[in-house]
């Protein structure tokens, strides 16, 4: 049996074992601390239309849910719950027969038992989504795919630790933390993916230079324009300085875009030198610039659409409530536009930076990664 077939067989075996584990874990209802309720019958007992002053319509409905408790000392007891939902289901949900709900039981002042629906039990679905993601990463990316998932988990842990430190210890050090965190995210991600070698050094330097240069240019532009036209209203609920929080997010956004481009350019150079080791520095530079020009446009569009997609619900909400296009876009998209422009600057700057550093580390010092 070849190594590749053995790898696929091992991957399939682990996938099946994971499915068995998920099914056992998510059906062991006694392990859950909250009260679980399985819907056995759901019927609509009331329905009516609502209209606001702007002419927006929605349908409100009331459900009667009958089911049984799946855990606690009252396991097996039948319960009848009431659920009110809207047709849009923005703030609520319509439940179906077979759904398992997390509920909170309480005693009324009359002594009767009642319960509030907290949420739908989603851990089984989320577990399968994560499993399929990891399986595809391993199937398509092999070792690198698994390492990508590992670096994602490690970086998530670092980010959670930084936010916890910010919330509970030193709220004044947020921006400084993210400046240091940008370097930490870069080093951790690239070392996990590539190990310590010349390619990793070229990637780290390219990513950090591209990130901080694009951030510096964006910050200087904001300072010179005295932040006119920048609307922080969507961050009103934050009690700390929205300016510093926005700058921290801007830095991380630049980092993501720059790292992607640096990886593309330097990996392409590595492959070129692996199969064509006699290429001159001029030929390598020209090839890297062609690759860079081809990815600039798509990457900038990816950034724009990624930020726009997050703001789309608010844009539609404003427009549906008779807000003008000018007011809507200035209120909602000013911060998203700055993020997209800053990331695009980083993409453009990273192409020559990563090209030069890649050529230096591979051509001057040798293409081998030792």
TrEMBL record:
This is YibE/F-like family protein. It comes from Vagococcus humatus. Coiled coil: none annotated. The chain crosses the membrane at residues 6-25, 147-167, 174-196, 202-223, 244-266, 295-319, 340-362. InterPro entries: YibE_F. Keywords: Membrane, Transmembrane, Transmembrane helix.
């Amino acid at each position: 049996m070849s190594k590749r077939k053995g790898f696929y067989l091992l991957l399939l075996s682990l996938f099946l074992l994971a499915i068995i584990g998920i099914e056992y874990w998510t059906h062991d209802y006694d392990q859950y601390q909250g009260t679980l309720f399985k819907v056995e019958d759901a019927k609509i007992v009331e329905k009516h239309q609502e209209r606001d002053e702007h002419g927006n319509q929605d349908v409100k409905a009331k459900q009667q849910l009958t089911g049984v408790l799946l855990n606690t000392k009252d396991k097996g007891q039948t319960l009848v719950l009431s659920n009110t939902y809207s047709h849009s289901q923005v703030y609520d949900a319509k439940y179906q027969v077979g759904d398992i709900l997390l509920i909170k039981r309480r005693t009324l002042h009359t002594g009767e038992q009642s319960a509030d629906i907290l949420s739908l039990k989603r851990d089984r679905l989320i577990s399968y989504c994560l499993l399929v993601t990891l399986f595809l990463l391993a199937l398509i990316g092999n070792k690198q795919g698994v390492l990508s998932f590992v670096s994602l988990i490690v970086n998530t842990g670092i980010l959670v630790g930084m936010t916890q430190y910010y919330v509970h210890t030193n709220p004044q050090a947020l921006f400084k933390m993210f400046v240091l965190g940008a370097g930490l995210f870069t080093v951790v991600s690239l070392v996990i993916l590539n190990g310590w070698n010349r390619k990793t050094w070229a990637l780290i330097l390219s990513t950090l230079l591209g990130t901080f240069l694009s951030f510096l240019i964006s910050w200087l532009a904001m300072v010179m324009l005295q932040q006119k036209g920048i609307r922080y209203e969507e961050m009103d609920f934050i009690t700390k300085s929205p300016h510093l929080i926005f700058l921290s997010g801007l830095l991380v956004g630049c980092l993501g875009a720059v790292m992607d481009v640096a990886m593309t350019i330097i990996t392409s150079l590595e492959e070129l030198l692996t199969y064509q080791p006699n290429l001159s520095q001029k030929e390598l530079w020209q090839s890297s610039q062609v690759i860079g020009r081809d990815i600039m446009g798509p990457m900038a569009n990816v950034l724009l659409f990624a930020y726009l997609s997050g703001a789309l619900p608010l844009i539609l909400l404003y427009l549906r409530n008779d807000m003008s296009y000018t007011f809507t876009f200035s209120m909602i998209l000013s911060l998203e536009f700055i993020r997209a422009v800053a990331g695009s600057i980083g993409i453009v700057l990273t192409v020559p930076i990563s090209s030069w550093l890649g050529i230096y580390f591979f051509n001057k010092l040798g293409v081998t990664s030792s």
